[in-house]
Structures are given as C-alpha cells and as structure tokens.
Amino acid sequence: MKHWPPVLVLVLTACACSQQAPVAHVTSPSSSSAQVSPGAPAAPSPAGKPGLPPTSPVPFQDLPLTAVGFSCRLPFYKTDALTTDGFITFPSGAVSADPGGNQGKYYDRAYSRWLPVTRSAVSPDGKAYAYIDFNQTPFVLHVVSVATGKDFAVKLSTQDFSGQPDVFDYSADGIYLSNAFEHLLAGMWLVNPVTGSIRQVSRDLFPQLSAGNGIIWTQVVNPADPDPVQTGTSIGTLPNEIDRVDLRTGTRTQWLYEPGRGLVVLGLDSRGRPLISSVGSWSADASAQLLLVAIPNSPVSIFKGVLTQSIGGGIADAHGTWFSGQRGIYLYSSSGALVKVSDHAGTPANGCF
C-alpha cells in the first residue's frame, strides 16, 4: 500500500494552493481557530485552479445561484495568465477589480493590503508572512514584516529537507514547515519566527490542514481496507482515513475511516470541524459527498454529487465556509446547506467583511 505526501493527496479530489478551511484573519488577534491554506485541485490544473478529476460519462450538475441575506465584501483572487485581485459585494453579487491589487493571494485586513502568499503563510495577527526561496542552497525561509518590509532570513538544513519544504501554517506557535515533496522523510518542523530556531515536532506524518493550537488534520492509507480507491496513475491509492493529531501531546485520533472511499479535508467550518470530501472513484463520481464530521466516525452528509470534486480552498468566517469552484463560489452556512453564491469563479482571499 503506497503512502504519499499531502501535496499529491490534495491533487486527488478538490481544489491549493493549501493548503489548507482557514478561519479568516481579523484585525483583532482573537482567533486560535483553523489557520490553513486552500486545498489543491481535483486533477492537476494550471496555477492551482479548481478542476474536476479525469473526464467520465457522469454529468456535472451545478447548484442554482442563491442570494445571501447579509451585506459584506469578499476578497478573492483568480489566476489565469496572471493573478487578478478583486471583491464580490453581497447581497448584490457585484464583482469589482481592486486597483490596489498586486497579484496577491491573501487580503490582509490588518493593513488593507494584498500579500503574495496564501492564508497558511500569514501570521494570525496579519503582521507578517513567510515564504521559502528555493533558488538558494540551502533553501531559505523568509519572514517578512507587512508594515516595514523587513525580511528575516532563516537557512533550512538540507539534512532535514531533502525535498522541497512547504510553509504549512504560520500559527501562534510559530511557523510549521512540512516536507511536502519527500514522503520518505515526511514530518513537520516548527520555526521560531523571532530567533530562527528550528525543531522537528513530528515524523512520518502527512499533514493536510491546521486547526491552530498545535492541532492538525492528516490523511492516511489504512491497510485494513480490502478495496481502496486506485487512481489509475503513478500516484497510487487514495487516502481512506482522516486523523486528528495533537502535536503538543502526540495524541492521534482516527476521525473518519471509510473503506472503499477516498477522503480529503476541503476545509473547516466556523467551529473548526472538518468538512470532508468522500469519493468512490478517481474519475468523476456521482456518489461523491461533502461530509461534516463533528465527532469521530459520525459523518453527516451535506451534499452529494460531482460538484463536491470541484470545490476547495475553504476559508471560514462568521457567515460560514467559503469555497472556490470551477464555476463559481460556494458557501457552507450555519444552516447546514451548501449554496452557490456567485457565478464568478475565484478563490476566497479572506473572509467576507
């Protein structure tokens, strides 16, 4: 049974950039909830845009456009030849480009500024962001002050990162790095953004999303599954288990195991509970479901259909969890329903404010 890294896992079902549904940054440092980047596309597609798995006879059925009952502006970015930044105003649904946009992927409300990284690489208070320069040897982690532009550089040991490390989450604990492209040396490291000190906090772990406070969601291929979902490609077998891991205590809890299904966390709701895509096939699958799993192995079906395989990039706020999609933007609200709120395809770049 082949285990593989989170970057490949994310390619299997629905819409990365990261990673990972983060709770939106706010101007006050009150959130210790999920802090992650959007998830990756269902099938490899340019610039991390959402995409369906390989084609099949299964028809794609979209949701009707639904008007929301609140007023706010949702920052979003869209990547074609270039990345464009803008806002969708609700309830009208009007779309406008931001003249101050700079091909950013996260709108920092603390400074009303677009940043060149996704949510997972921005500090909880919005004061700093991190990225890795792969053009230097060894690789260099840069921690940048949003207000001043001051750059603090940390060299990353090639002994730890034989592949390409990834900024998994810039949290209150520090900056979590994962060995994203080297499953043989999978694990996580924690970097102190002030001193630059680095320590490994886990081994043999394939992280997917962070929930803050040292809690992460991981994917597993459970060998007990007699008939796991195969991709038909060199990627191998789809993960059939989602675990909750507490890095501070080392406690690992099986959160959902579904034999014969492929699982990926698309995001978290506003209470930090995972919203999980469950598919029975690598190709377009009419049985695909969006599940809310509030307690271990007790999934509640939110939506069923191929659409589940084309959404991702969840980011949560007081309104619910916003998802990017191939044909628009979708919202999982506190009412428990998934609705389509815009025909304008793009990736949420923060919560709606």
How is this structure best described in words?
This protein is mostly beta strands and 353 residues long. The protein is 1% helix and 39% strand. The protein has one helix spanning 6-10, and strands spanning 72-79, 83-90, 94-97, 106-108, 113-115, 128-133, 140-145, 151-155, 166-171, 174-178, 187-191, 198-203, 207-212, 215-220, 241-246, 251-257, 262-268, 274-279, 289-292, 300-304, 311-317, 320-325, 328-333, 338-342, 347-348. β1 (72-79) and β2 (83-90) form a beta hairpin. It is globular and about 50 Å long. 49% of the residues are buried.
Largest sheet: 4 strands, antiparallel
Strand order of the largest sheet: 3-2-1-25
The tally of beta strands, per DSSP, is 25
Q: What integer value in Å does the Rg equal?
A: 19 Å
Query: How far apart are the first and last residues' alpha carbons, in Å?
Result: 45 Å
Low-confidence stretches: 1-22, 25-52
Mean pLDDT: 83
Break the fold down into its secondary structure elements and pairings:
Elements: H1 6-10, E1 72-79, E2 83-90, E3 94-97, E4 106-108, E5 113-115, E6 128-133, E7 140-145, E8 151-155, E9 166-171, E10 174-178, E11 187-191, E12 198-203, E13 207-212, E14 215-220, E15 241-246, E16 251-257, E17 262-268, E18 274-279, E19 289-292, E20 300-304, E21 311-317, E22 320-325, E23 328-333, E24 338-342, E25 347-348
Antiparallel strand pairs: 1-2, 1-25, 2-3, 4-5, 6-7, 7-8, 9-10, 10-11, 11-12, 13-14, 14-15, 15-16, 17-18, 18-19, 19-20, 21-22, 22-23, 23-24
Summarize the structure.
This protein has one helix at residues 6-10; strands at residues 72-79, 83-90, 94-97, 106-108, 113-115, 128-133, 140-145, 151-155, 166-171, 174-178, 187-191, 198-203, 207-212, 215-220, 241-246, 251-257, 262-268, 274-279, 289-292, 300-304, 311-317, 320-325, 328-333, 338-342, 347-348.
